[in-house]
Amino acid sequence: MGVGSIFDVPDVRAEFEKAGINTHFIPFIWKYVIKNPNCEWGEIPDLPSAAYSLLRSKFKTFTSSVDSVINSNDGVTTKLLVKLQNGAFVEAVIMRYDSRLGKYGGKPRPGGPRSTLCVSSQVGCKMGCKFCATGSMGFKNNLSSGEIVEQLVHASCLSQIRNVVFMGMGEPLNNYSAVVEAVRAMSGAPFQLSPRRITVSTVGIIHAINKLHKDLPGLNLAVSLHAPVQDVRCQIMPAARAFPLEKLMDALQVYQKNRQNLTSLMFLKQKIFIEYIMLDGVNDEEHHAHQLCKLLETFDVVVNLIPFNPIGNLSQFRTSSEEKVLTFQKILRGVNNIRTTVRRQMGQDISGACGQLVVNSLDEKPKNSGVTDIEDLVSRR
């Protein structure tokens, strides 16, 4: 094994066990590195002597580095360009919200400022969604669990992160093991993020969805549906041919049933998030909204309508008008009483909005993702 990240959970745990070092030191080491990102291994106090030699020979404090930080004009979005050990780039995006803005239930909202981090799980993507810039670059490589967790560590130096969404570059469930290990690390010491504050988005990798509720109980699942019928979905999402809509919805029914059994024991009620990009003349007509109502009538979901973000000369689509988006939302709410939100776009001025992330070469700066405040969607039930 080469020199790896101290945040690569399986490798670190295996090496500690192999050397006979108690693994309870791992969260302590992480906590020290997070607070002292430029530290040397010898500066960490109170470790067994064998741990110091193991750390020096096998691990780095970080295998990635922040190449640049760009803030949006309104100051609510920050884009981190992260350089990996292999020279490739990914991005993480911090989105800041003030939960006190507006009203909830006719009353002033409680809370205060909070930040959500959007992380990448792959360099590039195999899915090839035609409305997403990442799909245009093809698949380069998977990130390790450590490289995913390091995005959280880097972002935590700039803002206190309260929620994490796997909605950046890549299809998370095509990098299943690393994503599962990263989520487990984030929900354990010293990060202590509740699984309910972590959301994994997928185009619908059925075999992975089938085991997700067992591997990551309490996690939020978001499904990039984007069309209510198979032929339209295949038109804009080529990978949908491998995951037929009928089979995907069957898998989500099983997932929902298993999730409801779990959350009833935990006195919680979690919904599946349905992501739906609004493409003018493609999937945004009134009959599409009625088809979506029919498709989701037996599900407990939140639908998030996403205004399409142009991706330069790569774009063959147009953004739906605000009138069409609001009509679509009204039909979903009115026919089936489906909770439906319209995604607030953040960071467009720094190419930090949904679907804009792309890296064409190692010399080129990539572009990434924004999301409605996930905590608002999770907490209302």
In brief:
The protein is of the alpha/beta class and 381 residues long. Helix content is 32%, strand content 21%. The chain is built from 11 helices and 16 strands.
Q: Could you explain how this protein is built, in words?
A:
- With 381 residues, the chain is an alpha/beta fold.
- The chain has two domains: 1-62; 63-350, Aldolase class I (TIM Barrel, Alpha-Beta Barrel), CATH 3.20.20.70.
- It has helices at 9-18, 25-35, 49-58, 145-156, 176-186, 206-215, 230-236, 245-265, 286-295, 322-336, 374-379; strands at residues 4-5, 59-60, 65-71, 77-83, 89-98, 103-104, 107-108, 113-118, 122-124, 139-142, 161-166, 198-202, 220-224, 272-278, 301-307, 339-342.
- The chain has a ten-stranded mixed β-sheet.
- α6 (206-215) links the parallel β12 and β13 (220-224).
- α6 (206-215) runs parallel beside α8 (245-265).
- The protein is elongated, with a radius of gyration of 21 Å.
- The relative contact order is 0.13.
- Coarse shape: elongated
Q: Flag low-confidence runs.
A: 349-356, 360-381
Order of strands across the widest beta sheet? 3-4-5-8-11-12-13-14-15-16
CATH architecture of the largest domain: Alpha-Beta Barrel
Text of the CATH class of the largest domain: Alpha Beta
Percentage of residues in helical conformation: 25-40%
First-residue to last-residue Cα separation = 47 Å
SSE class: alpha/beta
CATH superfamily of the largest domain: Aldolase class I
- State the domain count: 2
The biggest sheet amounts to: 10 strands, mixed
Strand element count: 16
Strand content: 15-25%
Q: Predict the CATH topology of the largest domain.
A: TIM Barrel
